[in-house]
Design goal:
Order of helices and strands: EHEHEHEHHEHEHEEEEHEEHEHEHH
Shape: globular
Helix content: 25-40%
CATH topology of the largest domain: Rossmann fold
Radius of gyration: 20 Å
Strand content: 15-25%
Number of helices: 12
Largest sheet: 7 strands, mixed
Distance between the termini: 45 Å
Strand order of the largest sheet: 3-2-4-5-7-6-12
CATH architecture of the largest domain: 3-Layer(aba) Sandwich
Number of domains: 2
Structural class: alpha/beta
């Protein structure tokens, strides 16, 4: 075992896959040199793999995502760094109309499109409205894309390696607030499969499904309530599309109650999709209405006081759990 920070777990996954497969390439703004991109995720990659496999990109997300799609069609396996998830919108046509659809529109000519886009999302870092959004639900509704959002460095490394090996396009959602968190990683190789969620804490009274960093908030609330005899089961989907529906359904049928928590504003977000799934599959098992804890329906504020008010937190989740248990 060895201890690393969250960003280093990502870097290890990329290094291992680039060593294993010479077709894997890396593309990012400022990827080369000592900096290693805006969050140092590519630090040291050029030193080991050279400028033929590690590329600096222009400040044009639509342009270099298009280049990556072309590279994937010719047999390479590009990893693309979109530094902030907000900037995925600049490349929306390339991602939604090209990357997600090419295989479906070309018959048997292109049966694979192995491309990984990773991006930083989430608020709480005082980065203001255009660098703090959680847009995962926008892409979860696009057929042809896979989405994953690990909540810790261990899962990040394992799911990133699986994403790089996948023959379909995958978007990996990272959270800025976890960049400097630390984790113990095994020295031997491991993979975490796309499409399978995990029970992070078993419980019997209520199911809480968290997205990304909100899994950690849910675990802290579950630990506190455990001291009062309240048993909270915490689920981490990890994979947002495809979603592990069986895991969620089995948990809610056991507990009879569901609370979801994510940073994205409540309307049309993944909490609503999970709630709809539970109503369709678990209606006769429910002891109380589903509760959703989410970000405020407003652009992310720059003011620290307002941003803290915008974010879902442990107090709001605890209140939702206590409320649902009264019903």
């Amino acid at each position: 075992m060895h201890e690393v920070k969250y960003w280093k777990a990502f870097n290890e996954a990329v290094r291992e896959e680039m060593r294993r497969d010479p077709s894997v390439i890396y593309m990012a703004e400022d990827a080369r040199g000592a900096v290693g991109g805006p969050f140092a995720l590519a630090k040291g990659l050029e030193d080991e793999f050279g400028s033929d496999r590690v590329f600096d990109t222009p400040d044009s997300e639509a342009g270099f995502v298009g280049v990556a799609i072309g590279a994937a069609l010719t047999g390479l396996r590009p990893i693309v760094d979109i530094s902030f998830s907000d900037f995925l919108l600049v490349a929306m046509d390339q991602i939604v109309n090209q990357m997600a659809k090419i295989r479906y529109m070309t018959g048997e000519n292109f049966t694979k499109l192995p491309i990984v886009i990773h991006t930083m999302a989430g608020a709480g870092m005082r980065a203001a409205a255009q660098h703090s959004q959680s847009l995962e639900s926008w892409f979860a509704g696009v057929p042809g894309l896979k989405l994953v959002a690990p909540s810790n460095g261990y899962d990040l490394k394992g799911i990133m390696k699986s994403a790089i090996r996948d023959d379909d396009p995958v978007i990996v959602w990272l959270h800025k607030a976890m960049l400097r968190t630390k984790v113990q990683l095994p020295d031997e190789e491991y993979l975490i499969p796309i499409g399978k969620g995990q029970i992070k804490k078993e419980g019997k009274d209520v199911t809480v499904v968290g997205i990304s960093n909100m899994v950690n908030v849910a675990l802290s609330v579950a630990a506190k309530l455990e001291n009062e005899g309240i048993s909270v089961e915490v689920l981490d989907p990890i994979s947002l599309s495809p979603l592990d529906k069986e895991l969620i359904v089995a948990s809610v049928r056991k507990t009879g109650r569901l609370v979801t928590i994510h940073e994205a504003p409540k309307p049309c977000a993944l909490g609503a999709e999970i709630a709809a799934l539970v109503l369709e599959e678990c209606y006769d098992y429910l002891e109380a209405p589903v509760r959703r804890v989410a970000g405020a329906f407003t652009p992310v504020p720059y003011s620290p006081v307002l941003e803290d008010a915008y974010l879902p937190n442990a107090a709001r989740l605890e209140s939702a759990v206590r409320e649902i248990l009264k019903q």
